[in-house]
Write the structure tokens for this entry.
Amino acid sequence: MKVRGNEFHYGERADFYTHTSFIGECRFFHNARFLGQTTFDKEIAGTSMRSRWADLAEYKESDEEYLPGTLVMFGGEKEVTLSRNGVANAVVTTKPGLILNGDEPSKNCVMVGIALTGTVPVRVIGEVRKFDRLVPSKRFPGLARRRRFYDILRKTIGIAMQDGKDGTVECVTRMAL
């Protein structure tokens, strides 16, 4: 998309609406696509939205940088820290589909994108099979493991979507506070 004067041009086609100022109202018709970063300062309304990635995330200040797929919890000296004692509230994301509080991370602190729900890679210890339920590991901070029969009362962080062992597996997660 190119901006020339007060007109938006999408390729060479004329499926755009010419507006009178950059602050005024714009309406885009047909299949307008915005590549790169586009900022809107007003409400965006529509019937659907599509993303290439499948998690809902937000940026939180962290006590240190964590690898994608690491389980984190709220607390510590900053907003999030490495999960410990089998407690996890979120997963460090790789490519969020939708970012809440998506301001640019500050240069003065460590900000990590955490997935609150959706499909994300999760770091695991031990063997995990497709459709196993995952729980935070008590022995290995920041890692998940498959749920066993004696974990029936423990909080499940998600369901594995692929087989794996001592690495990272895709997981559908729904983190609850």
